[in-house]
Amino acid sequence: xxxxxxxxxxxxxxxxxxxxxxxxxxxxxxxxxxxxxxxxxxxxxxxxxxxxxxxxxxxxxxxxxxxxxxxxxxxxxxxxxxxxxxxxxxxxxxxxxxxxxxxxxxxxxxxxxxxxxxxxxxxxxxxxxxxxxxxxxxxxxxxxxxxxxxxxxxxxxxxxxxxxxxxxxxxxxxxxxxxxxxxxxxxxxxxxxxxxxxxxxxxxxxxxxxxxxxxxxxxxxxxxxxxxxxxxxxxxxxxxxxxxxxxxxxxxxxxxxxxxxxxxxxxxxxxxxxxxxxxxxxxxxxxxxxxxxxxxxxxxxxxxxxxxxxxxxxxxxxxxxxxxxxxxxxxxxxxxxxxxxxxxxxxxxxxxxxxxxxxxxxxxxxxxxxxxxxxxxxxxxxxxxxxxxxxxxxxxxxxxxxxxxxxxxxxxxxxxxxxxxxxxxxxxxxxxxxxxxxxxxxxxxxxxxxxxxxxxxxxxxxxxxxxxxxxxxxxxxxxxxxxxxxxxxxxxxxxxxxxxxxxxxxx
Length: 507
Ligand SMILES: *Cc1c(COP(=O)(O)O)cnc(C)c1O
Hints:
Elements: H1 30-42, H2 60-72, H3 94-100, H4 103-106, H5 118-135, E1 139-141, H6 147-164, E2 173-177, H7 183-190, E3 194-198, H8 208-214, E4 219-224, H9 237-246, E5 250-255, H10 267-270, E6 274-277, H11 279-282, E7 297-299, E8 311-315, E9 320-324, H12 341-377, E10 397-400, H13 402-408, H14 412-421, E11 428-429, E12 438-441, H15 449-467, H16 472-475, H17 488-493, H18 499-506
Helix pairs in contact: 3-12, 5-12, 6-7, 12-15
Bound molecules: pyridoxal-5'-phosphate.
């Protein structure tokens, strides 16, 4: 079992000692000094920093130890099971990291003449083509840097589409189911539309009648993930996209859950017009903590003119890859250059390594693992499945601890802390919002049956403690982690996020 270490919690600032250095900055040459001064003179004095930066003064060894210790107090996919639903915290093969260290990948610059980086452009062009094939879209942009950024790109395309047709005054609404990820309604507002929420039916899917009565001439589009966040595949998906198209709305596919469907079904064939991918979920980039990601967006052919510029195209007469700026209705740029190249490269290596059959096998295993866990966990006293109890789930499922709370006063949060104490990362909790005391479990394809069984045993144990009235031994957990129970409300209301904030608090 994984145990986090409990090092003394000292900030690197508190280890600072005046004059100590870990890295010597090279002194500037005379030419460099002159040009630096020239640049400095152009900066308005009001924008120049007056005070010192206040960086910690520490030795190299001190830095190494500090971050090694922090990593030992942390938990990641490389330390253990991480069934965080909707986030697809699967194993990211190390070979995908390796390719990003090649000099061909590292020693290039986005301003280089495209003719001198044909290999990199080819990689991006091919990845975009593969993603288009997997999703049933015509063309893909790799620019967006995250899922939410992909959503923004996609809904800006929806906006421009209606604008060009002269319908934007009337096309004001975007439909989002109540099981949606929070980024969906946020994106709708960011892009200047109104969110119209439709309820799920008893099966946890879109209520078609509710959809019909909501759709009108004001409908600009719909945002859906399928399978949805409950792990349910919409049985009426073609009907849903047809209803939206009838009023000239566009159907947006939130592809964060792509791990379930690779090589199985394609959003394009379901009738969707725009799709985003989370390369940092499905395609081999480690994520969490806000690191770099990629959220490529694919569109059907009639939306191609709206894509961000430039796209990467191939000229068959000169055999050259080039940057295509000719997208007459382009929404513009959504990010500098071409996107996060190292993330793109990882996805390319991942897909190349697995091939089409391999990707299909990934989805097979992801779905099999989820169903195995769903079947076993819903038999445990105190846990129930509120949507789709008797049917297969896709890559994830949502367990409710509603009864455990009602009967034994143990909440989903208590269950999570108990899981942490047993050396695993807990599932996503209290999401989706329509399930009370939700525990959203996504095992991914990476884990063995043994690990899945160990997790089920932890759920059995927490249920056993609760129903033998040993609640105390649950509510005091975690004891075996680097951090015990924190005051969630205080952490949210009075967060201390920097050394400066800490100093202010102390003074
Ligand atoms: C993760 C996720 C997103 C957002 O992706 P980010 O890369 O975190 O911005 C959107 N929708 C769903 C269903 C997700 O799981």
